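User: Cyclic pyranopterin monophosphate synthase. Structure?
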Amino acid sequence: MNDAVLTHLDSLGRARMVDVTDKHVTFREAVAEAWVHMRAETARLIVGGGHPKGDVFAVARIAGIQAAKRTSELIPLCHPLLLSSVVVELSLEDEHRVRIVSRCKLAGQTGVEMEALTAASIAALTLYDMCKAVDRSMQIESVRLLRKSGGKSGDYQAPSA
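Assistant: Predicted structure:
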């Protein structure tokens, strides 16, 4: 490896992208989640198909997928990755909460945690954007990495919430 330690700082302390040239290609997967809290009326409007902007979940799902693919353009020093799979799922968990789960996969030299977190975050923001006219009190909460596998740092599983 070109660097003894993976770091975003060069020898002069300046920010730079980590050099992963000599890292081995491995299968990597990351899963992240976000929660959107809303009024019960807003949730009923979304799942009942009566929202004036159409299928809110479908638009948020597409936005999350697009965001995962463009993470390197949004997060400084993030590597551009050729993702092999991005899945974004939205579900009404109770009358006030939507859970968003994103899953990103690839075979590569660096992980996909940022892509999964970006997908969940942007899907949540899209949900908010589409529903803000009917519920400005919505809250996006608990964006977090649930698990990751692959790579030199090994596997990670978040503690239960």
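Residues 40 and 96 are 5 Å apart (CA to CA). Residues 113-131 form the longest helix (19 residues).
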